[in-house]
Fold this sequence. Notes:
- The structure holds two protein chains of two kinds.
- By secondary structure, chain A is an all-beta fold.
- Helices cover about 0% and strands about 45% of the residues of chain A.
- Chain A is built from no helices and nine strands.
- In chain A, a hairpin with a 5-residue loop joins strand 6 (about 60-65) and strand 7 (about 70-75).
- The termini of chain A are far apart.
- By secondary structure, chain B is mainly β.
- Chain B is built from no helices and eleven strands.
Amino acid sequence: DAKTTQPNSMESNEEEPVHLPCNHSTISGTDYIHWYRQLPSQGPEYVIHGLTSNVNNRMASLAIAEDRKSSTLILHRATLRDAAVYYCILPSGNTDKLIFGTGTRLQVFP
Amino acid sequence: GAVVSQHPSRVICKSGTSVKIECRSLDFQATTMFWYRQFPKQSLMLMATSNEGSKATYEQGVEKDKFLINHASLTLSTLTVTSAHPEDSSFYICSASMGFGTEAFFGQGTRLTVV
Lengths: 110, 115
């Protein structure tokens, strides 16, 4: 699996943008970049995924570096409900198997 | 969007008994489902890949005779924790997707407590 590196934790104030970084320097050409988040006592929730181009959906934006060795998940206006652990994952070689790292714990303050 | 449903959400069982957890894909067919385990304050650990119509593939260190997986149809996978012991107490989560390059959908998780 291509390994990802994320900061252990980040903080934000409510209604401010949040940029969650992820490094994946060993990414291969066919690896998708997935982001999931997990709220306490719940199963993970899909946030966004992409391959090469930046992606936007109603939850977030995904900015992918030109060399694809890093990406950034952007929450445009953080809310208290966005407090969660965010996981950046590259599915295992041409499969849909997800191996979770430690993720980034995002705290959002009112 | 597609939904994966997991049942039960919470179960308490006595040591030595077996517990079955169900994972259903409600509006799509899943030839592959995944089972995870999560201990408090830790990340999800992949236990096994459930393959419809064939044997499950277990990750290293996971006992296949202890964690029995059956994927009898394209919408249902079950995980049976056999002869459960207190150390098996954990949060078990299943997931499924529509294939490579697509998003994964997760069940709400099952909190197992073995007393």
